[in-house]
Amino acid sequence: MTEPDRITFTVVDAIAVITLDRRDVRNAIDLPTAQALAAALDRLDRAPDIRAGVLTGSGGIFSAGMDLKAFSATGERPLTESRGPFGIVARPPRKPLIAAVEGKALGGGFEIALACDLIVAARNSEFGLPEVTRGLIAAAGGVLRLPRRIPRNVAMELVLTGAPFSAARGQELGLVNRVVAPGRALNESIVLAAAVAANAPLAVVTSKYLIDAAADWPADVAFHYQAHYADKVRNSQDAQEGARAFVAKRTPQWTGT
C-alpha cells in the first residue's frame, strides 16, 4: 500500500464501500488519507451507477480521527480544499452515505460519522467528543452537527463533559439507526444502503438535500423554497416510470432522469 493509497473503494451492486485502511494507526486521518477520502467521495458522487455509499474502517475500529503523530512530525493538518477537514466534514457527498462503525469513534472519528447520513454501529462501539478534556473544541463538525441530531441539552452535556457513550445510548437518542452484533456493522450497512439504492436516484438525492437545507428555512417560506426541487422530481422520467411500474405491479427501472 503506497502512502496516498489509504482508502479502498469497492462497489457492491449499486453501493460503494469506502474503507479507511490504516489499521496500524487505528485508521487515523493524515493529509494524504484526507485527500484520498475526498477523491473517493468525488467518485461516489460522479458515478451514475452508484446510488449510495458505506464508509467504514478496517481492523475493527472506525477511526481515531486526526493522526496526531503525523501532525507532530510534519505540521500538516488533514484539511482538503474540496471537502474540508478529514476529506468529508465540510462537504459530505450528495448521495446518501452510511457510517458502519465498529470499535471507537471518538473526536474526529465521531465527527466523520456525523458527516454521514445514517449510522449503523456494533453493540460494543463507543462514541464521544473528548476535545474539551484536551483544551480543544470539536470544530470538525461536532459542535455544529450534534445539536441538530439529538436534543440540544443532551448534545450540550456530551460536548461540555467530553464523556463517551455507547451505541445503545446513541440509538436511544435517535443518533444511531441500527445496533448490531460486533463484526456485523458493515454487512448491516450494506443491507440498509441496498434499501436506499433500490429507490429512484433523483428522488433520493433531492430528498437528502431538502432534509439538510430545510433546517435553515423559515417555516413561512419552506414550501415555496421546496417547490422548485419537488417539481423537478415530479416532472422527471423516473416519476413517470414509478407510476407505470406501480400500475403494472413490476419493479421500476430507474434512469436517474
Any descriptors?
257 residues; six-stranded mixed β-sheet; 10 helices; 11 strands; 41% helix; 17% strand; globular
Write a compact overview of the structure shown.
With 257 residues, the protein is an alpha/beta fold.
Question: What topology emerges from the helices and strands here?
Answer:
Blueprint (H helix, E strand, L loop, with lengths): L6 E6 L2 E6 L10 H16 L5 E6 L10 H7 L4 E2 L3 E2 L11 E5 L2 E3 L1 H7 L3 E5 L3 E3 L13 H8 L2 H10 L3 E2 H6 L5 E3 L4 H13 L3 H13 L8 H13 L2 H12 L9
Structure explained in plain terms:
- This protein has two domains: 7-197, 2-enoyl-CoA Hydratase, Chain A, domain 1 (Alpha-Beta Complex), CATH 3.90.226.10; 201-248, Orthogonal Bundle (Lyase 2-enoyl-coa Hydratase, Chain  A, domain 2), CATH 1.10.12.
- The protein has helices at 31-46, 68-74, 108-114, 142-149, 152-161, 167-172, 185-197, 201-213, 222-234, 237-248, and strands spanning 7-12, 15-20, 52-57, 79-80, 84-85, 97-101, 104-106, 118-122, 126-128, 165-166, 178-180.
- With 257 residues, it is an alpha/beta fold.
- The longest helix has 16 residues, at 31-46.
- Helix 4 runs antiparallel to helix 5 (152-161) and helix 8 (201-213) runs antiparallel to helix 9 (222-234).
- A hairpin with a 3-residue loop joins strand 4 and strand 5.
- The mean pLDDT is 95.
- It has a six-stranded mixed β-sheet, sandwiched between helices. Strands 7-9-10 form a three-stranded mixed β-sheet.
- Helices cover 41% and strands 17% of the residues.
- It is globular and about 60 Å long.
